[in-house]
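agent> fetching stored inputs for the FE2/S2 (inorganic) cluster docking request
agent> found them:
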Amino acid sequence: MTETLNKPEGVDADYYSVGAPIADTKAPAGPIENKWTLRKFDASLVNPANRRKLSVIIVGTGLAGAAAGATLGEAGYHVKSFCFQDSPRRAHSIAAQGGINAAKNYKEDGDSIYRLFYDTVKGGDYRARETNVYRLAEVSANIIDQCVAQGVPFAREYGGLLDNRSFGGVQVSRTFYARGQTGQQLLIGAYQALERQIAAGTVEMYARHEMLELIVADGQARGIIARNLVTGEIETHLADAVVLASGGYGNVFFLSTNAMGSNVTANWRAHRKGAYFGNPCYTQIHPTCIPVSGDHQSKLTLMSESLRNDGRIWVPKRKEDCEKDPRQIPEEDRDYYLERIYPAFGNLVPRDIASRQAKNMCDEGRGVGPMVGDFRRGVYLDFADAIARLGKPAVEAKYGNLFDMYARITGENPYETPMRIYPAVHYTMGGLWVDYDLQSSIPGLFVTGEANFSDHGANRLGASALMQGLADGYFVLPNTIRDYLAKGPYPTLDENDPSVAEARTSVEDRTRRLLAINGERSVDSFHKELGHIMWEYCGMERTETGLMKAIDLIRSLRAEFWRNVRVLGAADTLNQSLEKAGRVADFLELGELMCIDALHRRESCGGHFRAESQTEDGEALRHDDEFLYVAAWEYAGGSGEGEMGAPVLHKEDLAYEFIQLKQRSYK
Amino acid sequence: MNLTLKIWRQDGPTARGELVTYQVPDISPDMSFLEMLDVLNERLNAEGKEPVAFDSDCREGICGMCGLMISGDAHGPEKTTTCQLHMRSFKDGETITIEPWRATAFPVLRDLVVDRTAFDRIIQAGGFISANTGAAPKAEAILVPKENADRAFMAAECIGCGACVAACPNASGMLFMGAKVTHLGELPQGQPERAQRVAAMVATHDAEGFGGCTNIGECSHACPKGIPLDVISQLNADMRKAKSGRL
Ligand SMILES: Cc1cc2nc3c(=O)[nH]c(=O)nc-3n(C[C@H](O)[C@H](O)[C@H](O)COP(=O)(O)OP(=O)(O)OC[C@H]3O[C@@H](n4cnc5c(N)ncnc54)[C@H](O)[C@@H]3O)c2cc1C
Ligand code: FES
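agent> prediction call returned; pasting tokens
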């Protein structure tokens, strides 16, 4: 809990206070190569005969959750797994396309654990914890071994060896892939391992169940309250420990590349119960997505960034040309702006830079495609040169499936007319704060995968989220959670214990309230409005005044939500409006915290670009002297539904012992 | 575009359902089919009527969560998932009938939402390779010919949406099962359990109430991933060999 409370200086004083610093206490001292081995050795063991008396709840069946469920089940623990989809196989991990990194060095191109570690820390713009990242690189090779043993059909060469490709701007080929469906194949592997444990009786599966509250008794996480999404029944589930593997929160922006159901509720409910939220403002915006086509848009589709290897990005030089057929615009009237501004890297600048420049062009009124609000939101990605140079068959061989997908969604033929692309929210680096053991600030609550904040700093490299999810699930968590479980079984908790009753009642009350408001606006209309606010002020470029404005707007939107939302139907049936309402209510609180975090971090780093902190030529400028820390936010309570107090900031200083800090440059 | 929709509405698993007609004006051809239903739901909500329940998640054609019978075709007129179907595939003024998957093994839960957990139980019966975490040999230790790896991948592309069952007059799950048996059977890692896998999966399939295959081929035709019919031949071959102890 909070020991010292200080008011920060200036405008910040109105938004948050500063509490005691925090630190990870679990990573052992000594050389970085030895830390994980030492930690595994020091973590207590649980006698196989005792394991079935110990129970673990896992919320989420994506890579992080399914891998952990299967592994803990195999070890003999009693696992209860939850997901809101109808089957664990449908978790959002299924949608990942590009690949998964591993330091196998199959290509003899100089890769190593250390290089993967280094690339990840640098890619994260020096805002990740070294110890965690090193371990991630260390276990990466085991992941590939595990997946191959399960029957994951990775791409292979003619000789039967596994194939690799280079991905995300790094100089080595360390990415394993299964065509454009790597996430699907990895998840099916983990899903099958999980189903095998369900059959063996070690894992109980609760699909179409949504966690709506965390149970904390005597300061320890001891269970969850979940709603059965088919019957509406509110259920209590108790255990010795709880794991959240509930994914990222990109849908706070309404439009993102995330699945429709991806949400922050599990994390947010835990945050309200005392789990610190790490770096909530770190969001990744991916430059090559299919643009919004109108107000009806429900989600955005990512197209692999490999397209930038051969496509040239441009907008018309003059606003008047923006409505023209692009093929009628002569070469001299086109602005290949990335090639112009970044002659050395051209169209291959990192994701955040490519995204921000596309926004700048559209803000100037030079965007293309249909009007969305007051602007056209799109830039051209043109393959005419590539087709002339390589021939259509070669371009088709490389990008055929992406071109087909584009044609299906837009109804346009990208071989004939340039594609239109625009950036979209893709991944959230922020998440619940965890220590080296992946334990949150609530004892007994562990957080894995995209749901935690741990490995990617302020920006994630391509193909490393899949790696992290499986590293956490197969190899890290099963080794660290045993140290906690070894002290159990914890005292039996009665369903009537005040901590359980309180959690349950609060869920029931909230459900009742949502259904009783019966106002005039739909849940989606609130979600869309929140998304607009977040995208405008807490998206690719953030400013002090913008963020302050956003916080005001979010507060009044949240107040209106609790007065004026209309959720029809009943509590005791399958009710998708009710499901959405609960998720949006939590996004409306998270959005404010993200803006406060973005406001307080007066530097630019990774995906977080503060307009006030840039170099003379408009590049991101970090302030390591002031901001070399993880911001871990403590929830400060609020009196009524939807009311939030000023959160408390706990800083975890980042010490770079093994890697030297540098400023990025791509000119 | 202006459309007439006839949508299956059913309050719960045991309630009686019926087709209800809705007029939806002003639909853009650029909308996806599910966005068109979103528009309808927003309007119903505004009118104080309960929205239509339907499943979707990724809306990218990969999670397998969506799936509607659209004027008699599983996933509609194109070879894709319902979420990747766009309104430009329909004509202005068209009447579209929208129903849930219909199969004994997939009971309706509400409106267009069905219970497909029978598929999970088929996988539980044997649709896996037993490889405990940490026990795996080095990935490079076993070579897999590219041909087998590619065929395994092709079969592993199945998204478990259930369109094959919905399209089959016998409501058979053989394409789904054949895809899994082929995926794992093409790989060296899948050999040790090959015989028991196929036997256990088929037994569960039958017990769940899926029908048998009579080689009609609607399943493969409806499959958004184009899983070919020959995975069923593979399934049958494995089954015969398993029975005669030759696997
Ligand atoms: C389009 C796209 C492409 C991508 N491509 C790549 C790539 O090529 N390489 C790469 O490394 N990364 C990629 N990523 C990122 C990567 O896919 C994700 O970060 C990662 O899969 C997240 O895995 P996870 O296990 O943490 O969570 P998820 O897979 O999101 O799973 C979350 C789980 O939690 C459950 N859940 C959530 N809340 C609740 C609740 N309240 N109650 C019950 N259950 C709940 C869900 O049902 C689900 O089972 C991509 C992401 C997207 C969007
Ligand atoms: S919603 Fe995922 S396949 Fe259609």
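agent> quick read of the result: Chain B touches chain A through 77 residues (CB under 8 Å).
agent> awaiting further instructions
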